[in-house]
Amino acid sequence: MEDAHVAIPDFDVEKGLSLFGVFDGHGGVAREAVAKLVSERLPRTLKNLEEYKAGNFKERVGDRQDEFLWSADGRVALRKAKRKANGALLAAEAPRLRALLRNKAGRCAFSLHCKTDPIPLSAPSWATLLTGQRAAVHRITSNDLDSLLSTDSQGRLLVQPSDCLCTPVRSASCFASAFSQAKRQKLANPASPFPPTLFHFLSQNGCSAKLLNVGWPGVPQLCADARRPEFAKMHIVNSQAEELDKAVEEMLKLFVHFVQQLCLQVLALYTHSVDLAGHVHGFSLDVPEYLESIEHFDACLGRLLDALADRHEDWLLAITTDHGGGAAKDMSKDQWSLFVEDCKCIHKGLSQAGSQGVHGLQDSDTHNTRFVILSGLNARPGEICPPPEAIDFLPTLLRHLGLASDSLPGRSRGLRRD
Ligand SMILES: [Zn+2]
To answer: Which Pfam families match (predicted)?
Structure first.
C-alpha cells in the first residue's frame, strides 16, 4: 500500500504560501483510498474555508474532511478511490472472497461469467439451479410462486403455466418468449409436476441434508413436496427485511453448529440479504449500501471457511447466485420503458417498478450474469472455461457426492473428478 502526497509550490501566490503534505496510506486498501482522496481534496477544501481566509484553519480543515468522508457523496467517492487502489473487478472490501478467487489456498474453481437460464429473476433461476433442468422444462417463469405452484392429492408439487400477457414483439429483448411458450403449454397441459430438486436426489440416495433459509421463501417453496421427507428437516427463518443482516449472523452460527455437531452430508444456506440491498439501494459498484451487504456476506463466509478448515474433511463449498442486477439510475430511457411498461411479467409476484435496483431483462449483461465459486480439495483450481451453465450446478454437486446425474441435461464442471 502507498502513501499519498501533495506538493503545490504556488498554492497561494497572494499570501506567498506553498502546500506540501504526506498522507499515511499504510494499513490496507481502505486507508490507501482515504489518503488518496484526502490528498486530492485538501487543496480545494482549504482554499474555500472562511477560516483559511482569516488565517485560522488548522482544526476546521480536518473537520471538513471528516464531514465529507461520512457524507453520502464522500462514501461514493471513497468507493471509487478504493476501486482504483484495488485495480480489481470487485469494489467491495471482501477479503475472503478475493482470497478464494486469487487461489491462495490452491483449491478454488470459479467463473464470474456464468449466465442465467434465461430469465434473470429469482424463482425461475433457482428452479434451474435446484432441478438442473432448463426453464422450458421446469416452467417456472416468474416470481409469482403462489399462483404458479400447487400440490396434488398425493402431495406432489405441480406447476401451473403462467398466463403472462407479454407481446411476442418483445420476445427478442425480454423473456416473453418463455411466457408465450408456457401459455401454449397451458392450453395443451394445464399443470405438470415440478422436477426433482437437489434435496430429492439426496433423499433418494440416503443422504442427509438441511436447508437454512434467510428471507425470501422461494427456495423452500420450490423444494416443498410432501413426498420428500427431507423437507421436514428444513429450518426456515422468515425474517423481516430490516432484520436480515442480524438473521444472517444467526444462521451462520447455526450453520457452524450443524457442521460441528451433526453428521450431515449437505448443508445449504440461502440468504436474500444482498439481493434486498440491491433492490432498496441499487445493484451497482458505486452504491455503498450494496457493497456493504457484500462485505457483510464476506464476513459470514469467513466464519464458515474457518469452521470448515478446522474439519480437515473433503467438503466442497459451492457459492452461487441466481442473477445479477442493475441500478435504475444507470438504465437508458428505452431500457427502463421496456422494463416497466412492456415487460410486466417481470413484476408478477413482486413488482420492482419502484425499486432503486432491478433485474429481469434477459438481454442485459448486468442482469443475466452470475458467478460460481467452488472451494475444496476436489475443486480444480483456476477459472472454469467456458463458464458453466446454470443447469451444470446440480450435476457438479451430485458428482462431488459420488451420485449419478445421468438423467440431467447438464454436466459436472470445475471439479478434479469431473
Ligand atoms: Zn431480486
So the answer is: Phosphodiest
The CA 48 to ligand 1 mean position distance, Å, reads 44
Which residue do the cell numbers 499519498 mark? Answer: 4
**Residue 154: Cβ within 10 Å count:** 8
| 95-138+197-400 classified as CATH 1.10.8.640 | no
Name every residue whose Cβ is closer than 8 Å to that of residue 282 and which is 6 or more positions away in sequence. 290, 326, 327, 328, 329, 330, 356, 357
Q: What is the mean pLDDT of residues 242-254?
A: 62
pLDDT at 412 over 90: yes
**What distance in angstroms lies between residue 358's CA and the mean position of ligand 1's atoms?**
7
Instruction: Using the mean position of ligand 1's atoms as its centre, give its distance from the Cα of residue 328 in Å.
Output: 13
Answer whether 0.85 is exceeded by the pTM. Answer: no
pLDDT above 90 as % of the chain: 24
Domain boundaries, given as residue ranges, for the chain: 4-86, 95-138+197-400
Buried b (16+ CB within 10 A) or exposed e, 60-93: beeebbeebbeeeebbebbbebbbebbeeebbbb
**Coil/strand/helix, residue 13:** coil
Instruction: Read off the pLDDT of each residue in 281-295 and give the average, rounded to a whole number.
Output: 86
